[in-house]
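re: ur question from earlier - yeah i can do the single chain one, its not a big deal. heres the input i used so u can compare w yours
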Amino acid sequence: MKFRHLIPAIAIALIFQACATQQASKQGQSAFKKGDYEAALQNFEQVIKNREDAGNSAEAEVYYKAGIAAWELGQTKKAIRYLEKAEYLEYPSPRLYTTLARAAKSIDNLSKELDALENYHEKYPEGEAIDSMRVRLFETYVESENWQKAVDLWPEVKDRAQSDADLLAGYLAVNKNLEHEKAANKIAEKILELEPENTKALEWLAKKYFWQAENMYVEEMTAYKNNRTTSQYNRLLNKLDQVYPTFEQARGYFLKLYKLDPKPKYADFLGKIYKRLQEEQKAEYYFNKTE
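and the output i got, formated as tokens:
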């Protein structure tokens, strides 16, 4: 008998809760539309609590709008949690991914940012934010050392990169790590056209010319020491006519780098170059700067 009396009470409670949830949902939607994100979040969280307490999920839209409201209120981690739930429930919105990407970046979570960017790129190739999203996606590929993915995406950002030294510097890093030397050389030169004091491009070209000269110098000097003939000596002189100007090219880049940032490693290269150019006083000066 007592159990039968409980059934109507439970039913009434469930109906009351359903009405309260529906009311909170309506108030949340109204507040969200007005841009009152604090009221919107409060109401949507009540909906979420009621549904989850009953062992269910709220609608995908509720999680999505709760996430957007939380983001607008600066509650980043909460925003990510709700937006990821909306994504799991397959809520269709490009703003979901742009917001997720920004939120993840703001807390320096590269993995989550990368997922959001890739999803936007795949699902909304004609979206309003596609240009900025694909540029950031390329940057995240570089930061995460996904070199081949960066190469694959490059055609989509190439045109913009022609006037963007930072993007080109990213592509320089890609080609450097994939050992595409010729491509890296061209990119570095293009970067310096746009930004003459770009240290990444200067360092790439400085080291390129240094090692080109150094390797040739060592090879030819070793060959002459092993075969001290007139013909070998004449070959050595001819090669040195190429080596010294190449060392001078490297010197020019390293002098710029050292002026911009007097790092010991730049001083060491300059000391070695002046040593090869037989300018002992300058070599000693820069070697002293490495200590």
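The radius of gyration is 31 Å. not sure if urs matches, ping me
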